């Protein structure tokens, strides 16, 4: 079996949680984001496989910077740069353009850690399920 076919088989066998973890890894490590249709295609067959399941607890969250204490704006810009990898101008624009998403599609623990860092720096932050 070729390496490509083997990789394809492994990808096709991923659970939704593993696929999300792979998506987050590729986004953070290499800046690669999947096309919007990819997640829908993966979730489609699983949903059709059985009867309707009860609503599951959200596993992905968006961290939203709602506002910033003007006196602590520089500290928040530093944290946004650290968390997003943005340059100074981009981070400043993000902070000044609040409300803005800082991170999207992260698990609950990471979202809470990011919220804590941003709030300690002087930002008002909300964590919303995806």
TrEMBL record:
Record-level GO BP terms? translation
Gene Ontology cellular component list: cytosolic large ribosomal subunit
Record has Ribosomal protein as a keyword:
yes
User: Could you tell me which residue ranges the Large ribosomal subunit protein bL12 C-terminal domain spans?
Assistant: 61-128
Q: Outline the extent of the Large ribosomal subunit protein bL12 oligomerization domain.
A: 5-50
Recorded hits in InterPro entries, A to Z, give: Ribosomal_bL12, Ribosomal_bL12_C, Ribosomal_bL12_C/ClpS-like, Ribosomal_bL12_oligo, Ribosomal_bL12_oligo_N_sf
Entry keyword Cytoplasm: no
GO molecular-function annotation terms?
mRNA binding; structural constituent of ribosome
Keywords attached to this Swiss-Prot or TrEMBL record, sorted alphabetically, are: Ribonucleoprotein, Ribosomal protein
* Pfam family membership, one: Ribosomal_L12_N
Q: Which family does it belong to?
A: Belongs to the bacterial ribosomal protein bL12 family.
Q: How does it assemble?
A: Homodimer. Part of the ribosomal stalk of the 50S ribosomal subunit. Forms a multimeric L10(L12)X complex, where L10 forms an elongated spine to which 2 to 4 L12 dimers bind in a sequential fashion. Binds GTP-bound translation factors.
Q: What does this protein do?
A: Forms part of the ribosomal stalk which helps the ribosome interact with GTP-bound translation factors. Is thus essential for accurate translation.
Recorded hits in PANTHER family, A to Z, give: 39S RIBOSOMAL PROTEIN L12, LARGE RIBOSOMAL SUBUNIT PROTEIN BL12M
Q: What is the protein's name according to its record?
A: Large ribosomal subunit protein bL12
Name the source organism: Urbifossiella limnaea
Primary gene name: rplL
């Amino acid at each position: 079996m070729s390496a490509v076919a083997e990789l394809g088989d492994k990808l096709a066998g991923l659970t939704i949680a593993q696929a999300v973890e792979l998506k987050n890894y590729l986004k953070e490590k290499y800046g690669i984001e999947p096309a919007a249709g990819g997640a829908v295609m993966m979730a489609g067959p699983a949903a059709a496989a059985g009867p309707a399941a009860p609503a599951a607890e959200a596993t992905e969250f968006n961290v939203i910077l709602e506002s910033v204490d003007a006196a602590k704006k520089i500290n928040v810009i530093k944290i946004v740069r650290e968390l997003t990898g943005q340059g100074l101008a981009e981070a400043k624009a993000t902070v000044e353009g609040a409300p803005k998403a800082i991170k999207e599609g992260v698990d609950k623990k990471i979202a809470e850690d990011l919220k804590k860092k941003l709030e300690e720096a002087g930002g008002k932050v909300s964590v919303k399920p995806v």
